[in-house]
Amino acid sequence: MWISGMEIYVVKAGDNVDAIAASYGISVEQLTYDNQLIYPYELAIGQALLISTSMREASRAIRVGGYAYPFISRWVLNETLPYLSELYIFSYGFTPQGELLFPLWTDEWMIEAAMQYGTKPILTLTPFGPDGKFSNQLINSVINNPEYTRNLIDNLLLTMEQKGYRGVDIDFEYILAQDRDAFTAFVGQVSESMRAYGYETSVALAPKTSADQKGLLYEGKDYRAIGEVADYVLLMTYEWGYTYGPPMAVAPINQVRRVVEYAVTEIPPEKINLGIPNYAYDWPLPFERGVTAARTINNVQAVRIAIEQGASIAFDMLAKSPYFNYIQDSVEHEVWFEDVRSLTAKFDLINEFNLRGCSYWQVMQFFRANWLLLKNRFYISK
Question: What global pTM score does this model have?
Answer without folding.
Answer: 0.97
